[in-house]
Amino acid sequence: MDPSASTRDAAIDAATEAAEAQCESRLPFVEIDPENPDMPLSVWSVTESGDHDADGARGIVYADVLIRRSKLLGSLMGRSALMAVLTEIVEKGNAGPIERGFLFRIIAVAMAGTQN
């Protein structure tokens, strides 16, 4: 087994655990306005750790979390949530490893959906 694959798997496992724990109440990448907890300041507020593999894995996990949440919300709300995040990523420009991981997973799910 490729040693970098096991490092990647460990990073994905750690990112999944952290994101799922945070997801009990909110999406882990959404920044909430402290003065108005019902309003987000940003729907894509992420900070890189400096560990490229872990950050990429976190992006993948964030996509999975948003996909799961979107399915729970239903088609209109789910699409709106995904569109808001994608719009903010595009507006930010200069995609880092978190964004690349997120986009990789969204594209993979979209491509898998076209196979049916």
Describe the protein's architecture and organization.
- The chain is mainly alpha-helical and 116 residues long.
- 67% of the residues lie in helices and 9% in strands.
- It contains four helices and two strands; from the N terminus they run αββααα.
- It has helices at residues 3-22, 52-73, 75-92, 97-114, and strands at 31-33, 36-42.
- A two-stranded antiparallel sheet has the order 1-2.
- β1 (31-33) and β2 form a beta hairpin.
- α2 packs antiparallel against α3 (75-92).
- The longest helix has 22 residues, at 52-73.
- The chain is globular and about 45 Å long.
- The mean pLDDT is 84.
Overview in brief:
By secondary structure, the protein is mainly alpha-helical.
Features:
mainly alpha, single chain, 116 residues
Radius of gyration: 14 Å
What is the average per-residue confidence, as pLDDT, rounded to a whole number? 84
Spatial order of the strands in the main sheet? 1-2
Order of helices and strands: HEEHHH
The chain-level structural class is mainly alpha
Anisotropy-based shape: globular
Number of strands: 2
